[in-house]
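Subject: Glyceronephosphate O-acyltransferase

B.,
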Amino acid sequence: HPVMASVTVWYCEFLNNKHKDPMLKKRDDFEDILEERRTSSDLRYALRCYTPVLYKGVTPCKTSVLKSMVLQSDQLHYVINQVSKESGRAADDVREEASAILEEMAHSLQLSTVRFFAFMLSKVFKTLFRSICVNEEGIQRLQQAIQEHPVVLLPSHRSYMDFLLMSYILYTYDVALPVIAAGMDFMGMKFVGEMLRMSGAFFIRRSFGGDKLYWSVFSEYVKTMLKNGYAPVEFFLEGTRSRTSKSLTPKLGLLNIVMDPFLKGEVFDVNVVPVSISYERILEESLYARELLGVPKPKESTSGLFKARKVLSEDYGSIHVYFGQPVSVRSLAEGRVNRCQFNLVPRHIPRRPSEEIQSFVNDSAYRLVRAQEENMVLKPWVLLASLLLQNHHQNRAAGQKPGMALDELTTQAVWLRDVSRQYGAFLHWPDHTSPSEVVSSGLSLHRALVRVCEGRVQLAVEQGVYLFEFLVLIFVVLSCASYRNQMLHVFVRPALLASAIHIASSNQKRKTDVFNSFSFLRNMFSSEFILCPGATVQDFEEACYLLVKTGVLQVTQQEVLVTERGHRTLAFLTSMLDPFLQGYQVVCRFLCEEDTETLTEKQFIPAVRKFIVNHLLAGRLRYAEVLSSDLQKNALAALQRLGAVRKIKGKIICMYISCKGYAYEGCIHMKQ
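Prediction pasted inline below.
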């Protein structure tokens, strides 16, 4: 089989390249920046001398000068004339509209406001968090990168706290404060919106709707800041907060913009710095569970901010912020992009990216999100949440008493700790503390989700009216699942391989069959997890390598064999993927059994949610996680990509399950 011959070659090379072993990856040490804040004056900290070094030693640019540069740019002049001709409006009117867009959008950095935030956030952070740990070596690399080339900061996005935290850390280390892309929602917050603007935020619409003028003003504004090195540019590659703690499929618009100056030869290089922010306990924990169940997101408002002050009485554990290695766009593009194509037309004339550029930017985006994932710090509670969820599902299916013995949970947590480290997880497990203390600390911090009673640990579900108990259970399960999801990037490739192996019926599996099942499952879940396009063979070899290295499998040229000691690990890995498989299966079942011929995309989620609730209450579904709207949307996207579902004009979704669709559901049935 030509594919398997290729896999065998790749696999042998992988075994010979020891530097690819995730266990050998060196990561920086952390320093708690709150330690000094607890023993010294916050006012003195806020008012201290702040003298960051900028790109090539340039001086900070006044907002008025920056706006003038944008409005006088050749690209904006070209688009203004183009819009004027297409709409029949006077060029001066279009220019005034462009000026108004820029006025609404632009940041207006004021050091006095930054100092105010530094003082207030010190008070808030010391109340909320036990520690904020930062890798100082990463900060030093960032300081060096800023002096050499324009810099783009790409933090992961799990909380509203992310952009405040980033600026707070950079101010602490005397690093140039970034200008931050923020949604227009925040601008509507009285007083707070303007304060965010004066601390470096610039406001953009969630979507541009094909508005050429808006896009031109926005892109020219970002590129002007970047090319001249006035400040690092910061945005969230995922576009929005992840409600499930899984990395989201990257959005490419802003990444296209910040790569454009290099591709057109306007700067020698651009440094992109992935930043991984890991929360031991997420502030929006309960809010996210409600949103996944269909409760609308509360509108951002100043009054809502003040109402949320009750969180100040809670303990949210620690935060780890890891500044990754700066990634050179020049090195990413080497051998991938022929930049001569940009010499064929004047640089100020906007043009749609070619397929080559789109592919390059897309691949780069996935690599950058993977870099974020690799440096996410996992806390012991993440392991506990995963074990407790699996135990909960197993007990419900078997009709057994809920929960598990605390000693058993501790033993399993130690086993999973060791497995996670073997698979390359960046795990923060206190080495000089006994496992029982580590487990007790994690359970105590998350006592809203778990209960310890008479030596047994179980999900915190109050006994009472059945429907109320059911709703509380869903809420708790979704919250615990969001913590379990933090470790999925470590296990997803081995889990896909484990599920592919599980589809076969005997201990000896033909490698070609296993690879084909792996490839199908990977394709199906490409909207669910961060799986780099075109890397199926590499992912398969990585999964094989990890499972062979840990003694789970033996792999020959023809077969994949499960070892005697490997069954426990395979059972754990397949159980991790089972809720997602059942979620996709139930969406297929909904489309097969219900009348969906005139269903619009907007109506899909409420309709499938009602269908799932009925099946859960009837006991026909095992996993409450399937109620997550995020999972349902991803399942629909997968079905569209696989050709089982088709969207037609008027946003009506023609729900027909073709032979391909039945094959899709059949494969999941085999897994179940």
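Residues 567-593 form the longest helix (27 residues).

T.
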